[in-house]
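Exercise 7 asks you to align residues with tokens for two separate proteins.
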Amino acid sequence: MAQLWEQIGENLRFIGICALIVAALYALARLAERFLPQRRRVSVATRVSMIGLFAAISTVLHLLDFPLVFLAPDFYKVDFSEVSVLICGFYLGPSAAVVCEGLKIVLKLLIKGTSTAFVGDFANFAVGCSFVLPAVIVYHTHKTRGWAIAALAIGTAVLTVFGSAFNAVYLLPKFAQLYGVSLDTLVSMGTAVNSRVNSVSTLVLLCVAPLNLLKGSCVSLLTFLLYKRIANLLK
């Protein structure tokens, strides 16, 4: 019985941390908007419709995730859902991007559920926001082609650094705890991919960081190629 209550307590703490981070990211987005140049004026109905549309597209792209087993263990998967979130944020602003990212996770959970005790879903939201928020904020300071490239590069850099550090400090230990496996087991899965992996730090450095960098680069390229075309259609 004591073990059951301890597990319940751990789950509640995890939910509480998730809620705090979600609230903090949304508050950060709203705060950033206060200091950015005037955003595009659209009606509330249009804004809600656009966020819903982009979230639905993001959900479909998220459901099409796939592992890169030559680069990282197969519990790490890549998807291109942030393309739609970035386009939403570039068009409507930082808070719209955070809401779109959150709706994507909610819709994915309703359709498919979770296979990672919600850790992977929370990771996708938090790490995704670490990518899209800096990129959207920088882009909205100067909406030019050059600043768009800079924004996407900065977003990719933050994604790579934050995503890797967050995995090492919180996500991997929490995943191991909720799944009842040891960190050594997760490290050994990384060793099977790259023989130089022998610890959590090397797993993150040699597997997670390159994966995040590759994803950020691909998503940035697709966003750069698509945004203006889609924005012209939306206008």
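Second protein for Exercise 7:
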Amino acid sequence: MTKEMKVFLSEGRSQGRIVTLPVPEVAPGTVLVKVAYCGICGTDQDLFSGECSFAENGQVTYPVRLGHEWSGVVEAIGDGVTDFVPGDRVVGDNAVSCGKCSPCLAGDYAHCEHMLNVGTIDPVYDGAFCEYYIIPAHHLHHIPDGISLKEASLAEPLSVAYGGIKHMNITKNSTVAVIGTGCIGMAAVVLAKCLGARTVWMIGRNESKLAAAHALGAEIINVKECDAIQTVMAATEGRGADFVLECSGARETFKQAIDLAAFRATVALIGFYEHRENDVNVDTMVAKALTLIGVMGEMGNMAGALNILAEHKPDLLPIITDELTFDECIVGFTRKNYPNAVKIAVKIGEVE
């Protein structure tokens, strides 16, 4: 008798359903994972609503199985898999290589010519909102000891924040400003604190989200109560922040990031921008000799983020502000249902 599992499918237009499908079988080089947690990302919410450029431009094929922020336990392994055994706690990359092109055959999976996007846009690889998930072994990573499966579901957003952090030589004397109280911003706070930054400011306007950042060790700047640039300048004797991570993509925050930055600072842009930034003085960037970095999800970053977690074992739970069961997960895909959520974690299965 074929074993079955529950799977959540998004159909766009704020519609979705849980269906029953066969549990996939392992093939050579692949691993079957029993999923423990899967986080709901802002991209998941956009794709669920269908009110985003990806859907409008035809880059999404519905129904789509969402879910690229997950953790779980190895259930079975295929022939040739040597780095994992049943019972291992794992997380996975947010893209899957084809395994057949020249770069893949050379082991350079990051430059696959036919990369698939996990649970998002075409070409898509089914996401992890399911009880059992199959994935090539070379896209899996061991969860460090001391990090729970619930916390490990944050590995993917941590890897995105790491894409900016890895370009920053953060030391015990460094000052870091993070703009944006979403999950990526929180991840940036965690990594900067782990690396020993003297001061990490979280800049935002939502009190409950700022409270979560404070629990992670950040100093809080509520822009509804004070001017962020004046506050940072006063605290640094007019120098500004050595490192700035702009994780919001909100109107005017790019300009704010540039104005916050110290001379020869590094500014990482991690948020997508819905509007053009027209009120930016480029001379400021030149005069400050800034290093400006655009950050996207990049294969290889997860290993770097996990190495930091393994060494420092930070408490990540303040980032997860809400938890849902799998059966009730559909309500989490609508932003207005959880306006103060930083991260909603969906508990898929009992594995811990």
